Amino acid sequence: MPLSLSTLIACVLGVATLVSSSPTTPVHGIAPVSLPQEAFSPLIPQKILATANTLRSPAQYPQFTDRVSGTWQWFSPDTWTTGFFPTTLYALHTRSQLCPGSVGDTDWLALARRWSAAEIPLETKTGVGHDVGFLSFPFSEELLVNPNNATAIMAVNNFAKALAARFNPTVGCTRSWDASDPTDFQVIIDNMMNLEVLFRSADLTGNDALRQIAISHARKTTVNHLRPDGSSFHVVDYNSTTGKVFRQRTSQGFADSSTWTRGQAWGIYGFANMHRNTGMPEFLQTARHMASFFLDHIPANGIVPWDFNAPLNPPRPADTSASMIAATGLILLAQEELKQKPENTTGAAVYIQAAADLFKKTTDLAWNPSWQSLLSNGTVNNPAQNNLTGIVYGDYYYIRTANELVAMGLASC
Asked: Which residues belong to the signal peptide in this entry (predicted)?
């Protein structure tokens, strides 16, 4: 489904209002955007390096901060978020190439490799289940730098094998959470992000069965996680024996009928990525549909709440991680629009402008120089009252969003 008229008009008009002084030449007919100065602040490499220099023994990884001083809370490697900090280090290596001199003379690549090492035992023994896809992120980044790195190749293949083992052909999906009742086959919208490792391993091995698992999972998610208006359920429960859906619900959102914003953001990114990996138009349509809902439901102040349907009173927390995941997903979607024949320049401009707007509003709200994280106002799990924190993946996608815009020639460092 195409973007709604309200989103299209608002975002297209916005393209003319957020043009930077440099660069000034449109790319694919899209006007460049101006990012806030914080996007390339020296505080970014300073904070990330300070965290990287606290590598612990035995290894632990930052996931979120406390709510008062912004101090990182540390967790064992066998945690679904472990891959994000080393992937952030790879993102700064990328930035050192995109914006020479902007991140100091630190060897970010060496740090990224060092921080990835504690994940290697998780290839064969882990409790994260489906989230092996997230664990694979730093190794996929390494293969972009050195396609022959045997350690990274083995990691990607092992993590893909673990995810594929959770596939049920009757259901047509990979299992997300394990349940005490083995017939309760739970699938969460987040799992769209884990499918990437299947494609990377298929590229390495030629095993097309991995691609087919990812395609099947995404198709089932389109049918059973999406509502007609483009919003999404967080969790779908299937009967593992019959493959039938017996419940559609939330775990981290406000209500079963509401839209948890981080889940919606995972979906935008996940389906845009499915199109990138397959070229199948159905996935582009799904990504557009989810993006349209997300953009049409951002409040007038531009701040993404933790759930679009959460009550306004008491004041609902924001989720800056959802905002930044969505921004990166929208850029990926724009890139896919530019691959269409003819190029969908209008659609791509909408998504680029929306990503820039999200970036600016998030910076205005949550850039916090005194915290160890880059951003505050993240919501890890609001039903568990874990909110108003910095979050490691929120910081990663903050850096990634700016990197992508620079790489496209639409922003300057």
From this structure: 1-21
